[in-house]
Fold:
Amino acid sequence: MSSPKVHTGDVAPFLSVPIIDGGEPFVLTETKPEKFTIVVFYRGTHCPICVAQLQELEESYKDAQKQGVDVIAISMDTEERTRQTIDKVLNNMKKKKEEEEGGEKEEGESLTSLQLPIGYNLSEEIARSWGLFISEAIEGYPEPPIFSEPGMFVILPDKIVYSSIIQTNPFTRPNFKDVLGGLQYIVEHNYPFRGTLTKK
Structure:
């Protein structure tokens, strides 16, 4: 089964997933961002690069909100596996904070949750509709039977796809601060869609 290609300027495919501790599910058509929605698809809790990427998204989440950018990370993982991912991100953030403070553990309130919305149970059908590459588990690796490879989509408030990055493997994720810097430039200079000749 092949996956369709999502082009710049297309209406974004349907997307609805439950959110960890979020109450109502995330439904893309119901979002109302000021400027952009960034949808980040990640492989799952088995992927340490994904955990590092989610940490980066969490640490830049407030900056994104200040720019009028909504962000969500989504995988095909179950709720249980997704909670494992969140625990890994929180632990990494705690270790980083301790290292920055010279190895001393700060008393008082500790990190217990993420600001970044995390969606789970993405269906293979929806993953394919976004053009994501689908992989199966490699023997000897702690991977689920089937999962999507990474992708990042920038969606305009009218649900038109402004840009996308789709990968076939877990390496070379875009630096999120660079992404936010690029979006600021786009807004300030009214930068147009690129890659539009691909559809012709």
